[in-house]
Amino acid sequence: MNKKKNIALFIAAAFLFLALIGGWPYGFFTLLRFVVFGASAYVAWMAYEMKKEKWVWIFGFLAVLFNPFIVIHLNRELWSIIDLIVGIFMIVSVFVLKLESRSNTNRNFSGTPTSLARNSAAAEKSESESEGRQKFLSLNFLPFCPPKHSVSAA
């Protein structure tokens, strides 16, 4: 997992450093946006999978900044400074951000295992079925609005 992250970040950093050299056509900067956007979104997703929330926000912001779909227009001098800072940041993050596969990947952001939630739901289901009735889920799409009546089978 770290190898893919490192390759994506090195490629994006190379494009950012190449952008500092003048004389590129506009198409290069469009390609730069796609490459940096893709690398940032990919690393943000990997950081999300490893529950590294701070890194998700950082790379998510970079993905928004460099997104090729809704272009943020800044002058060339400012983009040169941004390209240099982000390129250095991406090289540094190759060494700082470690995304190892955890054996404990079934955790949500609150830290509780998702298997516990599944087990408690299964226990609740088996308990209601042992009482001789089947439990129906309500069709309430808005969890903050309680249903007007409850549906149950007799």
Write the layout of secondary structure elements.
Blueprint: H1 2-19, H2 26-49, H3 53-65, H4 76-96, H5 114-130
Offer a few descriptive terms.
154 residues; 0% strand; mainly alpha; 5 helices
Describe the structure.
The protein has 154 residues and is mostly helical. It has a domain at 2-96. Helix content is 60%, strand content 0%. The chain contains five helices and no strands.
Summary, kept brief:
By secondary structure, this protein is mainly α. It has helices spanning 2-19, 26-49, 53-65, 76-96, 114-130. It has a domain at 2-96.
- N-C termini distance: 52 Å
Helix content: 55-70%
Backbone structural class: mainly alpha
Report Rg.
24 Å
Tally the beta strands. 0
Give the mean pLDDT. 78
Q: In DSSP terms, counting alpha (H) and pi (I) runs of 4 or more, how many helices?
A: 5
Measured by DSSP, the beta-strand proportion falls in under 5%
Order of helices and strands: HHHHH
Shape: globular
The largest β sheet comes out as: none
Low-confidence stretches: 103-107, 112-118
